[in-house]
Amino acid sequence: MTTHQQQWNSVDDYFTGLLAPPDEPLTAALRDSDAAGLPHINVAPNQGKLLHLLAQIQGARRILEIGTLGGYSTIWLARALPADGSLVTLEYKPEHADVARGNLARAGLDRIAEVRVGPALDSLTVLGAEHAAHPDPFDFVFIDADKANNAHYLEWAVELTRPGSLIVLDNVVRSGAVTDPTNTDPNVRGTRAALELMAKHPKLSGTAVQTVGIKGYDGFALARVLA
Questions:
Q1: How many CA atoms lie less than 13 Å away from 188 in the CB half-sphere?
Q2: What is the pTM assigned to this prediction?
Q3: In which band, very low, low, confident or very high, does the pLDDT at 2 lie, cut at 50, 70 and 90?
Q4: pLDDT in tens, 76-135
Q5: Residue spans per domain, the chain
Q6: How much is the CA Rg of the chain, to the nearest whole Å?
């Protein structure tokens, strides 16, 4: 670990301890995810708190999450909803979805948050059909799944939201590789495609921010859906 990384970790620990202290459902979600062998790719606690605050500021009543993992970020997002709010989260792997469902139930959020299993693009097609039959747009979308399909996820996010909705796209820096147009990594190419779509889409106004912390060198993009 470099000196810089140690310093970033220390600062994140300070911020988290002061402004986003853990509670039992969040701690247990990480513990059970680790016990089940899930990869350590969940958002950091202070990043989870940021999602929570953004959803609250947005006044979100309906949230879509693409990429559930063990439900850690799902808990942060679902807690931002009013009692009559709802969240749909999409997870590719059934074993991850099982862990997430248990974590959401323990947090008392299983009636608010629904975990749908399968390839996200298939689940989004189903959501699109539901939306066409009974329009019920999402106010907030968090995209944190396989990066190769980021542009497709962003397109669906626009389709399933309304003017004024907020879209957050995670992990956009790719350790700096996002700046390289010759990079053939599908994660980099997918992220670049999503950012380029965000830049030119007539219904989106967005920006991207670099971050450092316990997740290393990373960043996220934020876009508002326009009329």
A1: 12
A2: 0.97
A3: confident
A4: 999 999 999 999 999 999 999 999 999 999 999 999 999 999 999 999 999 999 999 999
A5: 3-225
A6: 17
Q: What is the three-state SS of the chain?
A: CCHHHHHHHHHHHHHHHHHCCCCHHHHHHHHHHHHCCCCCCCCCHHHHHHHHHHHHHHCCCEEEEECCCCCHHHHHHHCCCCCCCEEEEEECCHHHHHHHHHHHHHCCCCCCEEEEECCHHHHHHHHHHHHHHCCCCEEEEEECCCHHHHHHHHHHHHHCEEEEEEEEEECCCHHHHHHCCCCCCHHHHHHHHHHHHHHHCCCEEEEEEEEEECCEEEEEEEEEECC
Residue type, 98: D
Q: State residue 136 phi and psi, 5-degree precision.
A: -150, 75
Residue 88 corresponds to which amino acid? V
Q: Does domain 3-225 have CATH number 3.40.50.150?
A: yes
Side-chain-side CA neighbours of residue 131 (13 Å): 19
Q: pLDDT tens, 12-35?
A: 999 999 999 989 999 999 999 999
CA distance readout (Å), 65 to 15, 19, 47, 73, 223: 25, 24, 15, 9, 15
Q: Which of 144, 141, 134 is nearest to 100 (CA)?
A: 144
pLDDT in tens, 160-204: 999 999 999 999 999 999 999 999 999 999 999 999 999 999 999
Please choose, from the candidates 207, 201, 211, the residue with its C-alpha nearest in 3D space to the C-alpha of residue 222.
Answer: 207
d(CA 223, CA 204): 6
